[in-house]
Each structure stands twice: as C-alpha cells, then as structure tokens.
Amino acid sequence: MLVDLERPGGNPMTNTTTDRPDPSPLLSVRDLSIDFVTRRGSVRALDRVSFDMVPGEILGLVGESGAGKSLSGNAIIGLIDPPGRIAEGQISLDGRRIDTLAPRDMRKLRGRSIAAIFQDPLTSLDPLMRIGDQITETILTHLPVNRRQARQRALDLLRAVGIPAPELRIDHYPHQFSGGMRQRVVIALALCADPKLIIADEPTTALDVSIQAQIISLLKTMCREHQTAILLVTHDMGVIAEAADRVAVMYAGRLVEIGPVEEVLRAPKHVYTAGLIGSIPSLNRRRERLVQIDGAMPRPGSVPSGCPFAPRCPKRIDKCAERPELLPIGNSQAACWRAGEGHSYA
Amino acid sequence: MLLLVLKRLANAVVVLLFVALLAFTIFKFLGDPVQLMLNPQATQEERDALTQRLGLNDPVPVQFVKFVANAVQGDFGMSYRNQLPVMGVIAERFPATFELVMVSSIAALLIGLPLGVFAAINGGSFMVRVAHIISMIGVSVPAFVIGILLILAFSIELQVLPAFGRGEVVDLGFWTTGLLTSSGRYALIMPAISLALFQISFIMRLVTSEMLEVLRTDFIRFARARGLRARAIYFRHGLRNCLMPVVTITGMLIGDLIAFALVTEIVFQWPGMGFLFVQSVQYVDIPVMAAYLMIVCCIFILINLITDLIYVVVDPRMGATAIGGSNVR
C-alpha cells in the first residue's frame, strides 16, 4: 500500500537498527544549555544535554511537562521562542554544526533536512489553504521541481501516509479532514523533502487512542522505509514502548537516563525513570494502586545544584548533593549515584 | 453562493422598507412642502391645487405606498431648490464622490496593508515607532484640518495643485469621470490624500494587531518549521488569515466615506454628494434629503453584500456554513 517515494539527492543508507550510537551519528547534541533571559536575570531551562542519533533511529524523549523535551526539539530545528537562547554546547547534523548557522541557512535546512510534526493537527495547517497547495508550496521551496511534478509528489505523499482517494482530497481544505487525517497530512508535509530527521513533538497527544496507534505505526513505517530518524518527544511511556528504539529520560532540564527501550523499561538505572515506569497503568499487571512520585519537579531557576531529583528521591544519600554525570552502565547511560543497584519504585 | 445572495437580498428589502418609512416620515412631517414650494404671495386656491397635485390629501398609508412605488422607479420627486428631478441631481453628483472615495480607499489599502504587516514583523524598531506615531496623528486629526493644511502647502505656497473643484471631466453618458484628464487627476490628489490618511492609519493599526495575533498561531510556527521563506509566511499565510476583519472594516469605511465625505468635499469644493447634501440641508430641500437617505442605505446594503461575498472567497469555511452545507469527513 505504501508507494516508494523517490529520494531526491538519494541517500542510500543500509538498514540500521543499532542500539548503540554509530561512530558517525546523524545528529549530535553536545552539552546543550538553554537560558531564558528575563529582566530578573537568566534562568537555565536546559542544562548540558548530550545525545546522538543514528540514521533511521527513533529516539524517544520523555519527561514531565517542563522537563525540557520540547525545548530540546525546538533548539534542533532552530525555533526557540524568545527570550530563550542557546547558552552553550553545540548541535551538529551530519557532522556539520547547525546551531550557529545564519537564520537564512537554517531556514533552508528546516523542512529539507530536519522536519517537524507538532502536537495539534487541528491548528498546524493553514485553514485558508487547500492541503495540496500547502504541500506543493513546501516541495517547491525545497526541491528543484516544477509545479506539475510537485503536485504529483504531493499525491504520492498523501497516498503514502494513507489518505484515501488522494486525487480528490488534495484539493480539500483542512476543515474537511478529521483529526487523525489531518495529522496524516501534517506527516506528509514533514516528509515533503525527504528529511533525514523528524522532530515529532507529542504527535499523538491530541488524538483518540485508536487513532494514536495508527499514527505511531505510520511513523514507524515511514521511518523504516525512508531511513528517517525520528526524535519522538512525548510524556507517554506507552508511546515510547510502542515506537522507540532508544529512550532518553529528561528531568528538570537535564538528561537523566538514556538507553535501549527494552533495557530502560525492564531495568531502569535512574530512580526517577523507575518511578515514571511504575506510574503507567497496565492491564496485565493488576495492582492495588499506581506508584506516585511525591512532590513536584523543581521550576527552572530553583533546580538543586546536585542531583535534580534528590529532594523527591526515596533513595537519596549524602552523595546526591553532588551532581551525578551521565555515565555508561550496561547498554545505557544514567546520571544517578545509585545507578548500579537496580530500582523498582514502590 | 446564489442562495447566500438571495438571502441577503431578501434581508435588504426589509431594511430598505424601514428606511423608506423613515424617509417618508421626514418628508411628511418636516415642514410643509406647499409652503416651501410656493412663494409667500400665493393664493389659497393655488395652495389647495398644489396640495391636491402632490397627493397630500390622500390617507397617510396611501401616500406611503405611492412614495415607495415611486422610489422603486427612481422617482423621488422634484428638488424644492432648483425644480429638477431629485434622482437626476444626485446621479449627477454621485460619480464625483465615488471616484474620490475609490481612489483614496485603494491607495489606503495598497499602503496600509504592507505597512501593517511591516509594523507587526519589526515590532520595536525605530521605523515602526515612527510609523505608529504618524498613524496616531492620522487617526486623530480630522480630515478637514489635513485638507486645509494641504491647500495651504500645495495650492497657496507651492501653487502646484488646484485648491478646489474637480478639474475638467469627461462625460461618458452615464458617468462623468475626472480620471481621464490631467487636470481632473491633479484635482483629485489632495482630496484623496486627506481622505486616505485616516484610512491608511486605521488599516495599518488594524492589520498590525491582527497580524500579531496570527503570527502566534501554530500553523505559522509549523510554516516556519517547514522552512518556508519569510515572505510566504508573512503574506501568504499571515496576512491572508487576518483579512476578514480588514475586509469588514474597509467595507464600512468605504460606505461611510461615500455617504459622509462631506467635510472633505466642502473643504475642496468637490461637487459630490456630500456637498449636495449640505446644500440641501441649508435650503431645507427635503426630497433630496429623503432620496439621499435611501441611496446611502442602498450603498451600505450593497457594500455589505460584497463584503459577505469576499468572505466566502477568502475563507472556505464560510461558504460551507453560510450556505448550510455540511463538512465532508
């Protein structure tokens, strides 16, 4: 059912489902810090976050609201809302540093090499423009094709993302589509120029559960067929378990654990990760009650200097007043002084 | 679309009947036409004859029906002042006002829209602050002050533009235009500027505030993420999405100007409808005033209809709801 879209400027990557970061990563984020500068001084919203992604990989970025997941995604596509700004660190795509690019050059990269999918498909599309026009406009911006070829490509894309009768639907307006169909259109828009990386910021949060599964499966298919890497930003551990190859857990602007999904889910190394997993309701595993992590995540600006989770951590020790670095343990990395012990939060 | 037009026309008929009643009431109860039309030395027989001829002895409802029936045929009676058919007098004046208003409105849109977008994009810059101060002046200084200042500068000091009148006009039979002669075009410049200044300022401020709203929306953010060029983001997606209020306000401004450009018309002795209206008030020329009321009402109805049709063109969602169609799922 899925058509093979031509890859302009083709990138014949062989199949990669590596769990370990490749020596030449597609995306490399190094010690990324973001400050929000206000009149009352600057507040650190993202604190020395580092991770890599290889081509065709789905990396889940998970955490509570305000943990800095969306901010990381926005930083990668160069759309941090003011007054936020990158304070230190660097972001590279295919070995080329992109966080210091001129806005002009970054604009050319967006949609071409790095695409984005946002949370709410109902508001992501221009309500006054036919979806076909929105797709062809994106294609014409990035690819050296004429109007007719662009429209043909738009049709192929719509078919590929599972829009029935694309010849008819291409001339419809966004309000004529349901939420799930609109998110498919948004995905088609993200795929316009065959990007190497898609930042998917809560792509299923605004959708019905049954539609969620369809969209996740569509994303996985697209990722596999086009060797597109996806940074899947979500607060939903279920989505991560379903879709991601690896998962990165964020807390209070820091990356606290990163590793292969099965390993992180089965044997979390960070106490916070264990708590997150314990708070997922499960149909198979009947319990008296779900785990609840006491307290609330510290607001940016009042994050403790040591381990950010220490004030809420049931396994706190004196050492936690010092900041733990992200260190390898097993196939994962975790920033926890007691990472070696294995946790089940209860 | 057709259904929408028909619905609006049906509404229009009701509105027009009400306005006709109002016009008729003025006609009927404001002053005695017989007294106004005859000279003071007229005999009682002459008065009775005229009263009979004007149908003023008929019952009031019958008079109203006659008034409406005549009005539909474009007959609003004779002007008291110069004993010419009212309709002819107004038709003669209409092109002058229409051309003046259209030229100034088109100029206002061409200048106001881009200025508004520019101001929204370059928020705190020096140029934008200057533009805002100028637009403040444009909104708050009355048109006649600007008109007088323009006459002082360009007619009296520099002597490059005529201070009054419409210049030479070309008669096209049904329409007299000043746009085809150079003196007509020169004469148009200053009145058009003094009318347009307010419109430019108003449209600019409106577009700026609407744009600032639209630029915060998700689809603009998504358009940025798609890597579209700035011009496409601001004009194709941004400006287009704030056109609705601009269309509404511009429609109202145009209607307002056609009906009530009278201050500017007096300053520049522009032979338009507003000028005519002021003259007819001075002479208590009631048939002209009543006809003027009806025509202004028709203009507003027409402009509202056009505005509604533009809505449907601009926003596909309007078409569906206005016609009562359902969304395809």
UniProtKB/TrEMBL annotation, chain B:
PROSITE patterns: ABC_TM1. Gene3D superfamilies: MetI-like. It comes from the Bacteria. Keywords: Cell membrane, Membrane, Transmembrane, Transmembrane helix, Transport. It is a multi-pass membrane protein. InterPro entries: BPD_transp_1_N, MetI-like, MetI-like_sf. The chain crosses the membrane at residues 12-30, 100-121, 133-156, 186-207, 246-270, 290-314. CDD domains: TM_PBP2 (cd06261). Residues 94-307 form the ABC transmembrane type-1 domain. The keyword Transmembrane helix applies. It holds the Pfam family BPD_transp_1. It is found in: Cell membrane. Its main location: membrane. PANTHER family: ABC TRANSPORTER PERMEASE PROTEIN, DIPEPTIDE TRANSPORT SYSTEM PERMEASE PROTEIN DPPB-RELATED. Belongs to the binding-protein-dependent transport system permease family. This is ABC transporter permease.
